[in-house]
Amino acid sequence: MNQLKRITAAAIAVAAISAGTASAQIRGISLPPSGDNQKAKVVQYIGPVKLAVEYSSPDVTGPQGEDRKGKIWGALVPYGLSDLGYGPCKECPWRAGANENTIFTVSHDVKVEGKALAAGSYGLHMIPGNDEWVVIFSNDSTSWGSYTYNPAEDALRVKVKPAKAEYNEWLTYEFTDRDPDHAVLALKWEELAIPLSITVDDVNDLYLAQIRQELRSYPGFTAENWRAAARFCLDRKINLAEALQWAETAVTGVRGGQGEESFNTYMTLADAQEANGKAADAAASRKKALAHPSASVIDIHMYGRTLQIAGKHKEALAIFEMNAKRNPGKWPVEIGLARGYSSVGDHKKAVEHANLAVKSAPTPANKQNAELVLKQVEDAAKKK
After folding, report:
1. 154: helix, coil or strand?
2. Can you give the pLDDT at residue 135?
């Protein structure tokens, strides 16, 4: 970092001359980092987008043990641009770390503070200020510090507001907020944070592009991957026409490949058909799903719960009753019947089956859930 364990031109020249022909042998060996500023790296994903910051980390305590708390910002790290006394740069930003460039790498195009930044690796520099900082992404990511910084190589500049932070002895980069399409990267040192908002505009489109490519390779030989691809779209209500094709492939396979007829593949196909306005086809696929030997007692129960949550109470009760006939005495048949009868107003049967659910619960957690359902249906019966 600037003014911290600075490398001077004279030191470099002396090292080069004294090494002589041995310099080629010395170059590349593993030695402690300059100034004991340990190297660090932090990685975060936004969906399929990989972000990484590689940096060298100075500490508040000086190399001779001196306490520099309260003397970092505006002193050790000066505000504004500085002449570092070496190299062609006379108005230099701070290197946002120590030693070599702090390197910010991103695998896909993103937006930083709302401004576009292309995929690639960048030297990260900053211009500190009392109330506002300028963060610079330089196309030069391989230099030592800011000694050769050239503003003509800037890929992006953004302005951010500094914020108070918990005390950090070591300069640290941290992702302080993470969402499916957004993350906040913060430099933290001493009691100051410099946050950077990073967003990805089309996370789902990136996933879709990756899924399409993967299905052309080894993952495409497995029916479950075709089903999962369709499910990805259906759950997000996107790309529905292609989702239907993928769901069909999960059942039938591709030419020379093997599909899989199962409760899961038929139910996904039914959802895809319904999402594309093919109600009759969806009903036929659901019938095949429920009749398939792979349909477990839990599968059928959860489908009934899905209907119930959607307000289709009569249809849900029919599924719970079918489950009871096919899987008598198995958990959670009784609790399904209790919910089903209660939702259509048959409170007497609901209480009867809820009591049976409590008695037949296989685990303490199941019993606790059944007791909760029993209380609910008893309360509903009292309000009748």
Report:
1. strand
2. 98
